[in-house]
């Protein structure tokens, strides 16, 4: 495993996030189930080429370890090590990078993700949100105008969330972001980089 690969930290991060979400949902509750879950996750990532091709050998190696050694492979431990050994300080990156990082990780857990145009957000083509189907949908115009040239956030990002908000909050916090609920409109929240002095006009 090449820990000098600049992208292996993202692979490890996404794997850990996927496992965290599965644990939180009660889908895995034992080391054997964790190994099976991660093997399936890695196999899907390999088959669908969800990561950069530089990571193909790393994915293949992790998958082989999990299949041949079972729980002795300690895939969660390997991912944790790779994350710590190869990652820089995520919180030192700009706001936009950190948001992209966490959203990619969340979507790889199977949560639906979408960027909605203005007509899809509040016009005639607004999709019907099903609380039984976990999803995260961001307003396209906010993504286009919400960051300066250095990737710093300048306005809140409107988001509709049908996924478990507690789990989403925890994952956002790991990347230096936070969620503010609009108490009057179902599913509506605003995303804000932690520490940014941005006015959020959520209805209370």
Commentary on this structure:
There is one protein chain. This protein has helices at 8-24, 31-48, 56-69, 75-86, 95-107, 118-122, 140-145, 165-174; strands at 112-116, 135-139, 157-161, 177-181, 188-193. The chain has 204 residues and is of the alpha+beta class. Helix 6 (118-122) links the parallel strand 1 and strand 2. Helix 1 crosses helix 2 and helix 2 (31-48) packs antiparallel against helix 3 (56-69). It is globular, with a radius of gyration of 18 Å.
Radius of gyration, in angstroms, nearest whole number? 18 Å
> Hey, roughly how much beta strand do the residues contain?
5-15%
Distance between the termini: 50 Å
Q: Unreliable segments (pLDDT under 50, ≥5 consecutive)?
A: none
Number of strands: 5
Spell the H/E element sequence: HHHHHEHEHEHEE
Average pLDDT confidence is 86
Keywords:
alpha+beta, five-stranded mixed beta sheet, 5 strands, 13% strand
């Amino acid at each position: 495993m090449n820990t000098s690969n600049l992208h292996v930290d993202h692979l490890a991060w996404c794997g850990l996030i996927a496992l965290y979400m599965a644990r939180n949902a009660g889908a895995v509750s034992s080391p054997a189930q964790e190994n099976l879950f991660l093997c399936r996750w890695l196999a899907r990532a390999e088959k669908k080429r969800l990561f950069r091709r530089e990571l193909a050998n790393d994915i293949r190696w992790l998958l082989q370890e999990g299949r041949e050694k079972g729980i002795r492979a300690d895939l969660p431990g390997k991912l944790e090590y790779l994350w710590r050994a190869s990652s820089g300080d995520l919180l030192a990156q700009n706001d936009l990078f950190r948001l992209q990082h966490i959203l990619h990780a969340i979507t790889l857990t199977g949560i639906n993700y979408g960027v909605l145009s203005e007509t899809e957000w509040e016009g005639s083509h607004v999709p019907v949100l099903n609380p039984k189907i976990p999803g995260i949908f961001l307003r396209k115009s906010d993504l286009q105008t919400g960051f300066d040239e250095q990737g710093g956030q300048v306005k809140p990002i409107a988001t509709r969330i049908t996924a478990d908000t507690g789990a989403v909050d925890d994952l956002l916090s790991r990347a230096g972001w936070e969620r503010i609920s609009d108490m009057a409109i179902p599913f509506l929240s605003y995303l804000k980089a932690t520490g940014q002095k941005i006015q959020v006009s959520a209805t209370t």
